[in-house]
Amino acid sequence: MAHYATIGDTLEQTVARYPDTDAIVYPRKDQRWTYREFDDRVNRLANALIELGVEKGDRVATVLHNGSEMALSVYACAKIGAVFTPLNFRLPADEIEYIVNDAEADMVVYESDTKTAVENARPELNSVEEFVFIDDDAPEETRSFYGLLESGSPESPEVVVDENDIYAFIYTSGTTGRPKGVVHEHRD
After folding, report:
1. pLDDT tens track for 149-188
2. What is the DSSP pairing of strand 59-63 with strand 181-185?
3. pTM of the model
4. Positive or negative, the Cα torsion across 184, 132, 88, 97?
5. Interior angle at CA 164, CA 163 and CA 167, nearest 5
């Protein structure tokens, strides 16, 4: 019988109820993780982000396909109170530049499929202190996503996140003008 998380459950509650149930199945990278394994990786990424200086309220932009790295990033940000800022992986460099600068993102996480656009925007990304790449062919002065994942502690980070804290900036498509960041709080 399959077990699924209930809406409103925290990751910790789901891990407690269904520790050995599949949480992530990602055939593209031959990954299959239980809720316990997923939570361990989320904690590792969250703690690695803290070690890099990412703090509560800092923005972490992603230019990724929907995969395990996206899931890890959103949950790691939630655990430490960082503001998850996903960008569409199809965006060209000028739109990445606009959104990342508008959001005042401190970090950009990207992949091979979005490398050209991000690298073309990179010289103009004024607020970004860290670039993180999920694939093997990382550009210079870019951190390895999986290197960070390996370096972080598996313990739950000691950050207090309030339901009124900002959880994410989700940008509109900008069909009638420039995209606008819509603020989501943890309670939403």
Report:
1. 999 999 999 999 999 999 999 998 877 888 888 989 988 7
2. unpaired
3. 0.92
4. positive
5. 80
CA distance 149 to 176: 39
CA 162 to the chain's CA centroid: 19
Q: Residues 6 or more apart from 136 whose CB is under 8 A from it?
A: none
Please list the alpha-helical segments (H only) found in 52-122. Answer: 68-80, 93-103, 115-121
Q: Which residues contact 72 (CB under 8 A, 6 or more apart)?
A: 38, 41, 42, 45, 149
Is 145 in contact with 109 (CB distance < 8 Å)? yes
For residue 42, give every residue at least 6 positions away whose Cβ sits within 8 Å of its Cβ, in sequence order, or none.
Answer: 11, 72, 75, 76, 79
DSSP state of 109: E
Tokens 């972490």, located at residue: 60
Residue with tokens 């060209």: 92
Number of Cβ atoms within 10 Å of the Cβ of 37: 17
